[in-house]
Amino acid sequence: MIRGMLHFDANLLDPEVEAQVDELLAKLSLREKIGQMVQIHVHDGNVEASLELIAGGHVGSVLNYYEASKLNRLQRAAVEESAAGIPLLFANDVIHGYRTIFPIPLAISCTWDPELAQEAARIAAEEATADGTHWTFAPMVDIARDPRWGRIAEGAGEDPFLGAAMARAQVQGFQHDNLESGRRLVACAKHFAAYGAVEGGKDYNTVDLSERTLRDVFLPPFKAAFDAGAGAVMSAFNEIAGVPCTANAFLLQTILRDEWGFQGLVVSDWDAVGELIAHGCAADLREAAALSAGAGIDMDMASNAYRQHLEQLVAEGAMPAAVIDLAARRILRQKCILGLFEQPYVDKSRAAHSFLRPEFRAKALEVAHKSIVLLKNEGDLLPLDRAVRRLALIGPLADDHHEILGTWHRIGRDEDAESVLDGLRAVLPETEIICVRGSNVLESEPAGVGAAVQAVSASDVVVMVLGEAETMSGEAHSRAYLGPPAPQMQLLQAVYEATTQGPQAKRQPLVVVLMSGRPLVIPWLATHIPALVQAWHGGIRAGRAIADVLVGNVNPSGKLTATWPRAEGQIPIYYAHKSTGRPVTGPGVRQFDEAFRSHYIDEENSPQFPFGYGLSYTSFRYEGLQVETPVVDLDGEVVVSAMVRNVGRRAGDEIVQLYVHDLVAEVTRPVKELKGFQRVSLTAGEERRVRFAIPVQELGFYGLDMAYHVEPGQFQVWIGPASSSGLEGSFTVRDT
Ligand code: BGC
Question: Structure pTM?
Answer without folding.
Answer: 0.98
